[in-house]
Amino acid sequence: MSGVGENQLISIQPDELKFLFELEKQSYCDLKVANKTEHYVAFKVKTTSPKKYFVRPNTGVIQPWDSCIIRVTLQAQREYPPDMQCKDKFLLQSTIVPPHTDVDELPQDTFTKDSGKTLTECKLKVSYISPSTTQRSSESGATNGDGQSSETISTIQRLKEERDAAVKQTQQLQHELETVRRRRNQRNSGNGLSLKLAAMVGLIGLIIGFILKLTLASPT
């Protein structure tokens, strides 16, 4: 069995499951599981409280040097745990499987320790974060310029920056599109004016030619 967060086959980020705990509300935490080998690796997620959490996917196969995201959802709870302490734990098992193995083709004894194959395990702890703690961290970061914000506040700030950048890029694209449309309309307007001018010149030429013809044909 390996230490928290990684083993010989895979790496797991983050190495601890953190959930924002609010009554009657679900919360989730994403785990990035990366295959560190040139082999196909199968994994399975287990927990000490299976009725409390929803894990998808809880079993899978990762291709060599690839990764996947596992979403762990904390079901809505009706009461707070004592002192906001959580004793729940997760166990992520992994083992090498034949190339191009599909998750539906995994034998039932794939994650059985006495099956004769090498089975590695990672333990993950669970912690709860209360909304009041997040708010206090935010206020502390705002009043103390030299202090470091919590990881949650940093994540929120990063998401806001990404959102603002996306909005700015969208506005820029809209401006460029409007410029292209304006130029196209100007070209179309110029082409229409040229056609009208050519028609007028042609009409004047016909009138002058007709007058000259009448003048030359009239008796002196």
From TrEMBL:
Q: Which residues form the MSP domain?
A: 9-129
What processes in GO biological process is this protein linked to?
A: endoplasmic reticulum membrane organization; endoplasmic reticulum-plasma membrane tethering
Q: Where are the transmembrane segments?
A: 193-212
- Coiled coil stretches, renumbered: 156-183
Q: Which Pfam families match?
A: Motile_Sperm
> Keywords on this record?
Coiled coil, Membrane, Transmembrane, Transmembrane helix
- InterPro entries from the xrefs? MSP_dom, VAP
Q: Which PANTHER family match?
A: VESICLE-ASSOCIATED MEMBRANE PROTEIN-ASSOCIATED PROTEIN (PTHR10809), VESICLE-ASSOCIATED PROTEIN 2-1 (PTHR10809:SF42)
Q: What is stated as this protein's family in its record?
A: Belongs to the VAMP-associated protein (VAP) (TC 9.B.17) family.
What name appears for this protein in its UniProt entry?
PapD-like superfamily
Upper taxonomic lineage: Eukaryota, Viridiplantae, Streptophyta, Embryophyta, Tracheophyta
